[in-house]
Amino acid sequence: MNAPRARTSYSQGMSRSWIVALVLLVARLAVAAPPDEQALDHVNAYRAAAGLAAVRLDPALSKGCMEHAKYMLLNRDTDAMVGLAAHKQRPELPGATPAGAKCGKAADLYPGVTSLTIAIDGWMGGIYHRRPMLDPGLKTIGVGYATLPDGSLMAALMFGESTKKGAWPVRYPAADQTRVPLEYANEIPNPIPGQGTGGYPITLQFPAFDEVTGVRASLTEGKTKVPFHLSDPEHLATSFGQYGVVSVIPKRLLAPNQRYTVRIDATWKGKPQTWTWSFTTLSLRTLDASDETAMAGAIGIPSVVKGTVTYGGMMNTETAFLQIGKSKQGTYEMLSVLIPIAVWKQLAGKAKPASFKGKTVEVQATPTLVQQKYLNLKIAEAEQLRVLR
Questions:
Q1: Cα-atom radius of gyration of the chain, to the nearest Å?
Q2: Which phi and psi angles does 125 have, rounded to 5°?
Q3: Pairing assessment for the beta strands 303-308 and 285-288 based on DSSP bridges
Q4: HEC secondary structure over 102-159
Q5: What are 33-75's pLDDT values in tens digits?
Q6: Distance between the two ends of the chain, CA-based, in angstroms?
Q7: Phi and psi (nearest 5°) for 347?
Q8: I need a labelling partner for 135 at 20 to 30 A (CA). Which of 45, 245, 351, 368 fits?
Q9: pTM to 2 decimal places
């Protein structure tokens, strides 16, 4: 009677071992998922937050996007990649193909980004690039990428045909959503007056060619009114089409860990309606500039970084910088705060960046890795940098 029990125990032990091995294998496979599958999962996470159904990869669309990403790679640092020119292939240039041109014309593009997921975060942070990603009738996407010598990517995301059906309108951030980002992305064209900066955009999205008129809006943090730019199908922010999107863009960065309420009144297809909802912004991660591991792990994550200035200067006539850290393990070469010259004048008047050497500062920004060696903290408002001592 003991022998069967011994065999059963051995069998159960083997099963547990195989289960553990299988779990570890699945974990490794998950980590090693191809970039296009990671991008698909990230797009679907955004769609799920907005209450929309998942989409799937279309191999034909992805093929064209891979070709356009290669075209962008081959023609980087030329006028073919300046602004919106990247969307239109020139047949005489290296890498130009019919399928690639079709992708370039209709896709979201990001010429030089650390990862596809960061590219998607950036596209979702603007009103124009967000719109096709949150189309309720969207079924398929194509993903393309090409790797630059420094390891960053040329990225392209194309959208398949829409059924135009679904639960309209789409709110984003969604009702009661948490961990909402704070700032507007670097989008071309820029809908903010004067090529300015602002807070994370709030959108109410209708079918592209429906009649949406008489839009009015309000945005509050508690009982405090928040100033914003309003762009809607009747009042376009740029010459680029609004395509059914009502956008509320805060004039300042949103505050961390705060609840905001937005109200939009509009007449949709001849019927006046009101939409009111609330969301909560993310909390900032607190980091020490000397903690290289923590800094490397915070790429793309809004944070508050404390450090001592070791060097200050001008990157160019438009941007000052303060170096607050260097890598000892080779993760990156240096950590710097990048400050637009107009913001620098607000912070320091006529003082030179070099005069900040030895000062301890606290910076609210999102760490961004450039060329796989420069870790930058780019700010847009004077309030994002404080001198502690």
A1: 24
A2: -85, 5
A3: parallel
A4: HHHHHCEEEEEECCHHHHHHHHHCCHHHHHHHCCCCECEEEEEEEECCCCCEEEEEEE
A5: 899 999 999 999 999 999 999 999 999 999 999 999 999 999 9
A6: 77
A7: -80, -40
A8: 368
A9: 0.86
